[in-house]
Amino acid sequence: MNTDACSAWLVGGTLAATSGIHVIQGPGLYGGAPNGAWTRIGHNQATAFRLLRDKRRVVLSANHGLYAWERGEERWLQLHDETLTEILAVASTSGDPGLVAGCPYGVATATRDALGAARWTFHSDALGPDERYTNALLVDPNDESRWLAGSEAGVVVYSDSGAHAARSNLWDVPVRALYYTCDRFWAGAERGGLFSSEDGLHWERMGGKIEGAVYDINEADNRLVAATGHGIVAGDAEGPWQRLGPRMLFATLAVDGRDPQRWLAGASPGGLWHTEDGGQTWNQLDGFKHVRAVLPPEEKA
Description:
The relative contact order is 0.12. The protein contains 1 helix and 28 strands. By secondary structure, it is mostly beta strands.
């Protein structure tokens, strides 16, 4: 494996390459650069939902598990147990393994057992099915014992490391994306567009209405940018949202921290798309069929 998972662009998706009737590559995590080749990282063939990178690892949440590629290792390490499956969301916190995971069955955290395996405990058992079904997670940057969960019912706020859960007023609508910037929380909903909150409990819609669901939120050059069911949108959260690029279901959008004009966006179906001018012009990168997670390179000091 020649690709450095910490310094490369990472794409969780399906890269189809055929030889005759045989498909020789499929779902997994790929590393590379927009204008170069893409290499599978390890032998994991999971369908990725989310990616995160912290000081010691890259974490992949996927359809059949939770995995880490740690610095100095050349293999995937399993982080899930038999109770944690189809992990749709993951966020980093302190401790070991230092993760909060979200899945259709709720929000969970883990501790290590005597053999060093991660054993997961759910914090959502008292909630209804739609409240438990977690699409997105965000750890409060001001209080890591407080977590926001975007569920099929709306935004649920967990406090005291999952001991308590409270409904926000962003309710009766599925929430698919969460983000934090400018001292505010941001949420992308199935309908209605982008919402913002100072405390995670009281929300208001920002900017104009957005067509379709919002699946990912990011920022670039003092603008919010979002991946939606009908394309990429950008704006200042006050006026109308501007649609950029092709009209298709974009599941994810990543901005290069070293160059805020360079974005990679993943569509499912539709593959991987790239812009070098802040969304004004786009080109499709060859090979990918479905992309649900993209992570930009590690920023250099």
